[in-house]
Amino acid sequence: MAKALELPAPSERGSNREGSWRWLMTLGVLTMLSAAIGGGFGLVMVSGIEKRVEEKYKAANEKTETASPYTGNLAIKKLAPVVTNLAGSESDWVRVEASIVYKRGDDQNADVMAGETRQDILAYIRTMSLAQIQGPSGLLHLREDLNERVRLRSNGVIQELVLETLVVQ
């Protein structure tokens, strides 16, 4: 005997479709809810970032006065250019133009200080090689060394040596 195919009852078929619709409706509601929460979170983040940017912009625009280290009885004197060759090389030449910032006083002669400083710069640069003054770190070390030598030689009268130009050929 052959078995007859049994079709589901009409009531079962309707509840199956109803379950699918419920599933799709739940999925749609959850999607809408997550989109709303994500959009709200995004708006909160954007407004917070805008406030921070405005605060930084306002802080940058406000002029803050910093105290200058060059106050009081200070003067500046330009030194004559120093031209010399480097140690161990007859073909590498250096030209340095600089100024000194010094404390004015009755007992100091600015021209004498400038001459002694120039002579000290010349003697120091003659001991250096080209590799020692190459690049930004070499220039920084040269500047720091010259400033230290000038302060020591002048017993604190000269505040700083300002390098204006440094040309190596």
From TrEMBL:
GO biological processes: bacterial-type flagellum-dependent cell motility; chemotaxis
Keyword Transit peptide: no
Transmembrane segments: 20-46
Keywords attached to this entry: Cell inner membrane, Cell membrane, Cell projection, Chemotaxis, Cilium, Flagellar rotation, Flagellum, Membrane, Transmembrane, Transmembrane helix
Broad class of the protein's primary localization: membrane
Highest taxon of the lineage: Bacteria
Alphabetical list of Pfam families matching this protein: FliL
GO cellular component annotations of the record: bacterial-type flagellum basal body; plasma membrane
Annotated localization: Cell inner membrane; Cell membrane
Record's bilayer topology term: Single-pass membrane protein
Role according to the record: Controls the rotational direction of flagella during chemotaxis.
Similarity remark: Belongs to the FliL family.
Protein name listed in UniProt: Flagellar protein FliL
Phylogenetic classification of the source organism: Bacteria, Pseudomonadati, Pseudomonadota, Alphaproteobacteria, Hyphomicrobiales
